[in-house]
From TrEMBL:
Transport keyword on record: no
Keywords: Glycosidase, Hydrolase
Protein name as it appears in the record: Inosine-uridine nucleoside N-ribohydrolase
Gene3D superfamilies xref list: Ribonucleoside hydrolase-like
SUPFAM superfamilies from the UniProt entry: Nucleoside hydrolase (SSF53590)
Highest rank taxon of the organism: Bacteria
GO molecular function terms attached to this record: hydrolase activity, hydrolyzing N-glycosyl compounds
One Pfam family matching this protein: IU_nuc_hydro
PROSITE patterns per record: IUNH
Length: 313
């Protein structure tokens, strides 16, 4: 059976790392590239953490490409307060031996799409800057990619960086609008999906702690996020938006509710900047340009995640 070809675009910090660990351990997919964008952290740290993820997965070494160092039209906003100054819960790990490719991430996306037309499934775990640049470089990108999945937005719920905006889309809303305008028909898996049944609770954390070196690493690198949840929201545990998106991307049978709609970004408004505005009622009378995933099976998600992480390669 031919393995599914995927490209992962990431601003590699703690939950991205868990998503990469999972994807790197799936025998039915081959990661053709890991493209890195600034978001959770400055670009250089995100690249370092991508190589850490590859080393910890213990499987194979996809090529890593450095991409955009800042958003298209605004200054970079990072989230060390969520992931730690190193993006890894203050583990302060040494750099790995890997060296990024010379080609820019956006060019790599285009090159792979042209090399394997209709075969590449792309998932973004960070701001959409690299993908937007790729869409500008190749106006026919939508016809070359098999599918585009985006961890971004907040569905019909509250944001996690402003009252209405989710972090990834807030960091570069202009890039997200370019992606929507490029006929890429993204499938959005918002932050909201990771806050309910997929939230890893105290019992789940104990399972990870007792499991394997890999599962303990996945727990430890999210230490800052665990502390944040306890301090500000009184919740024991942590959400994993990027692994939630990754597992739904790789196993769409766990999706329980999704809807198509016309979406657009709020790019410049001082109050709503970064909001993914979803026309649920088709008030504008426009054709849908995206799919919004609203719910996945939390128990199946956890089983898939634990089955992968609780063993060492």
């Amino acid at each position: 059976m031919q393995r599914r070809r995927i490209v992962i675009d990431t601003d590699t910090a703690s939950d991205d790392v868990v998503a990469l660990l999972y994807a790197l351990r799936q025998s039915d997919v081959v990661i053709e590239a890991i493209t890195v964008v600034a978001g959770n952290l400055p670009l250089e740290l995100c690249v370092k953490n991508a190589f850490v993820s590859i080393e910890k997965a213990g499987t194979y070494e996809p090529p890593v490409y450095m991409g955009a160092q800042k958003p298209l039209c605004k200054e970079l906003f990072t989230s060390e307060y969520v992931h730690g100054s190193d993006g890894m819960g203050e583990m302060l790990l040494p750099s790995q031996k890997g060296v990024a490719q010379e080609e820019h991430a956006a060019n790599a996306i285009v090159s792979l799409a042209r090399k394997y037309p209709g075969e590449i499934d792309l998932i973004t775990l960070g701001p959409l800057t690299n993908l937007a640049l790729a869409a500008i470089l190749e106006p026919n990108l939508s016809s070359l990619l098999s599918s585009v999945w985006v961890m971004g937005g907040a569905g019909s719920k509250i944001g996690n960086i402003t009252p209405v905006a989710e972090f990834n889309l807030f960091v570069d809303p202009h890039a997200a609008q370019i992606v929507l305008d490029a006929n890429l028909k993204p499938q959005f898996i918002g932050w909201d999906v990771s806050t309910d049944e997929t939230f890893l609770n105290e019992k789940d954390m104990k399972t990870l702690e007792k499991g394997s070196e890999t599962s303990r690493f996945a727990l430890r690198c999210n230490k800052t996020l665990v502390e944040l949840n306890a301090k500000y929201w009184g919740r024991i545990g942590f959400d994993l938006p990027d692994p939630t998106a990754m597992i739904a991307f790789l196993h769409p049978s766990i999706i329980e509710k999704q809807r198509e709609a016309f979406c657009q970004m709020s790019c410049d408004d001082s109050v709503t900047q970064g909001q993914l505005v979803i026309d649920w009622q088709n008030v504008l009378g426009k054709s849908s340009n995206a799919t919004i995933i609203e719910k996945i099976d939390g128990q199946k998600f956890k089983k898939l995640l634990f089955d992968s992480l609780l063993v060492d390669c």
